[in-house]
Structures are given as structure tokens and as C-alpha cells.
Design brief:
Alpha-Beta Plaits, 6 strands, 9 helices, alpha+beta, 243 residues
């Protein structure tokens, strides 16, 4: 009775499902240790699910095909192609965007997508390829992160910390006064990012300039105000820090 149940096809399915649990578990455990959103269970479920669908594609329709010869056209790659495209939605759920700039979770999303591919590869019986890819993935996740940090420290020039400021200057209109202000800011290595000019409705001789600038943290508010107040006919200077 046991021999009938554990035929060659059932044995193949057990081996392949067990192998993908092991391989995807290695990858998921690494993500779990580093407290990423998709860990051990998620990676195992993705790997087993994709392997199951690959096995379905290979063995699930044999009886129907044998009983209806010539009635159907069988394409074993159809279901796996849907797995690869559909797993992208799960991977997207692990990607987090902070402040519209910083993106986190891309590596975990990529590992989920790769585990789905591993499941398909194991499901079709390509054991050597599956083990080799798992070794490559584990090596990448464990060691290349540290190597990348070291290479950045060696080759990437460390930038000085900078801060953003909003500078408002109320001053009497003079010839080339704007050029004088710009020259002063340039001498202090203050980069102008945005500029706005606003005329005074009550006194046409007065104008208000607003600059959004970036400067090194070594330059203080007081230094900026002090330098701008040295200009002739300055009525008001205001400096605010920007996030």
C-alpha cells in the first residue's frame, strides 16, 4: 500500500517541495534576522506556492491530456509566467517610501521575486541551478552589504553637512543691488536655489528679496545676518532655517 502511494511521481513532488522549503528558508531567515518586513514564513510560502504551481503545470493535467488525446494544446510554461508577473504585487507591499525620497524594502522585494523563481526552478527539477542561485543570493545578502559600505567610504567623497535657509532682505532700490547681494552670498559659498522679488505697494523705492539658499552648517544665522546688514540702505534682514 505504501509502495502504491509513494510512486515515482509522488516521491519527486516530495523531494522538490522539501528542497524549496529549505532553500527559501535560508533566504527568509536572513531577512528575518535583519528585521525586514518579509521574513522566514513569507519567503517559504512564496517558494512553496510557486513550486506547487510549477508541479501543477507539469503533472496536474496528465490525466486529462491522456484521456483527451489531440483535444488540447498543452503549454507547461503558461502558469509559471503568471507566477512571475503576479509576484510583483507581493514584492511591492514590502517597499516603503519615506518623505518621497528614501526608498526601503527593494532588496526584500527582489528576494521575494527571486524565491518565486527558485520555486519554479525546483518544481521543474533543476536542482543544481536552484542550489547555486541560493548560494549566490545568500552571499549577496550577507556580504555585499558590508562590501558596498566599504567601497562607498573609499570612493565616494564625503560631503560636508549642509543646511537650507530662507533669507528675506528689505532694502532700498539701488543700481545693481541684486548683483551685490549675489556676490556676497557667493563669497560665503552660499548656494541660491530659489529667488523672489516683491515690490512695496506703499513705497516704490523699497523692494523685498527672498532667497532660498543652501549653506554649510559651519555658517550660522548670525553670520549671514551680519554680512547682509553691512549692505547700504538695508532696512530688514530675516533668516529662517528650512527642513
Amino acid at each position: 500500500m505504501l509502495h502504491i502511494i509513494l510512486n515515482s511521481e509522488m516521491f519527486t513532488i516530495i523531494v522538490r517541495l522539501s528542497l524549496i522549503v529549505l532553500l527559501s528558508g535560508f533566504i527568509g531567515f536572513e531577512r528575518e534576522v535583519k528585521n525586514h518586513p518579509a521574513g522566514l514564513r513569507t519567503h517559504i510560502l512564496v517558494g512553496v506556492g510557486s513550486c506547487l504551481l510549477m508541479l501543477l503545470s507539469l503533472f496536474g493535467f496528465e490525466e486529462f491530456i491522456n484521456s483527451h488525446p489531440g483535444a488540447t494544446r498543452y503549454d507547461p510554461s503558461r502558469i509559471p509566467s503568471y507566477v512571475i508577473s503576479g509576484i510583483g504585487f507581493l514584492g511591492a507591499g514590502t517597499i516603503l517610501v519615506h518623505g518621497g525620497v528614501t526608498v526601503k524594502g527593494l532588496t526584500t522585494a527582489a528576494s521575494i521575486w527571486t524565491v518565486a523563481g527558485l520555486g519554479l526552478v525546483v518544481g521543474v527539477g533543476m536542482y543544481f541551478e536552484a542550489v547555486l542561485v541560493t548560494v549566490i543570493i545568500i552571499t549577496t545578502l550577507l556580504f555585499l552589504d558590508k562590501l558596498e559600505t566599504r567601497l562607498e567610504a573609499i570612493f565616494k567623497k564625503k560631503e560636508e553637512p549642509q543646511a537650507n535657509y530662507l533669507i528675506s532682505i528689505t532694502i532700498n532700490k539701488e543700481k545693481d543691488i541684486l548683483g551685490t547681494i549675489n556676490k556676497l552670498l557667493s563669497e560665503k559659498k552660499i548656494e541660491v536655489q530659489k529667488f523672489n522679488m516683491e515690490n512695496n505697494d506703499w513705497d516704490p523705492s523699497i523692494v523685498k528679496y527672498t532667497f532660498k539658499v543652501r549653506a554649510h552648517n559651519s555658517i550660522s544665522h548670525f553670520e549671514i545676518v551680519e554680512n547682509l546688514q553691512r549692505l547700504t540702505n538695508v532696512q530688514k534682514v530675516q533668516v529662517e532655517s528650512q527642513a
